[in-house]
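Suppose a classmate hands you a notebook page containing two proteins, each written out with its sequence and a corresponding row of structure tokens. How would you begin to make sense of it? This section walks through that situation. The first entry is reproduced here exactly as it would appear on such a page.
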Amino acid sequence: MASLNVGNLGEYLREQRRNAQLSLRQLADAAGVSNPYLSQIERGLRKPSAEVLQQVAKALRISAETLYVRAGILDAERDRDDVETRAVILADPSLNERQKQVLLQVYESFRKENGFGADADAGPDSGADPDSGAGVDVDAAVDGAETVKNPHS
């Protein structure tokens, strides 16, 4: 994962805030964060959480993903497909919540198995057996999803 580059993030936030013609106080109020905290973020003194970045992005009407990339939380190229895939799964109205969660678990299992998951940087001694689907029993997960009754059938 890329390291946090909060100076670059702060400059970018200030530029976006000015383009939106918002004062620091107006943006802080719209994002639900304190004025001093937002000022510290803009000056590169604080590292905001992904949740705070999401609130600020919403208030600025810009993509939260853009802020995540600027903050070094997401690698722009490597993580974009993962974020989009998860968003599509979560937005699918034909799946219930349990099915979505099972599908996300299976998806993450395959990503880890192929060296792209959250534990991919841990190396071969990370404790996961590569033949095990990185800790998720895919057959059990699928069986569990099949036992959830679909009200439309």
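The notebook's second entry, a different protein, reads as follows.
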Amino acid sequence: MSHNRRSVLGAALALPAALTVGSLAAATPAAAAGGVDAGAWAPLVLEAGITPSPGAAAEVRLVTIAGTTFLQARGLVTCNLAADTRIGRLPDGFTLPTAYVRAVAPRNNSQGVNACRVEINPSGSVSVYGGNAGNPITWIQFDSVQTVWH
């Protein structure tokens, strides 16, 4: 029986892949480990001067996957933020966080800056950080905002 280095290397690389595929096939789905529960979307309550995009209102919901709860957001707003600014609050009846929750959201690309920080405090206020007079934030896209909720 003849073995060259290529066949030995190929067999060595194939073994972990085969074990991994077997492990994934036998893995328990998230639903069996606590399930997935997605809450209903609810619109953010926006401050004056913060305008929701038609057909893409800023909304939030809580999603629980296997016992861990996440905040998920979507939508687009237009604005003119020349300083760190409160842009709104969570909807009435929404579960409040027990600590500050922070995420990064895309914004207008100006001077090489294309993201801003979104922060929700324990009272439910939503603030945006990163705008200044020389580089104001003129729109914020929330679709990438997903963070652990606590």
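A careful reader of the second entry would note: The helical segments are 5-26.
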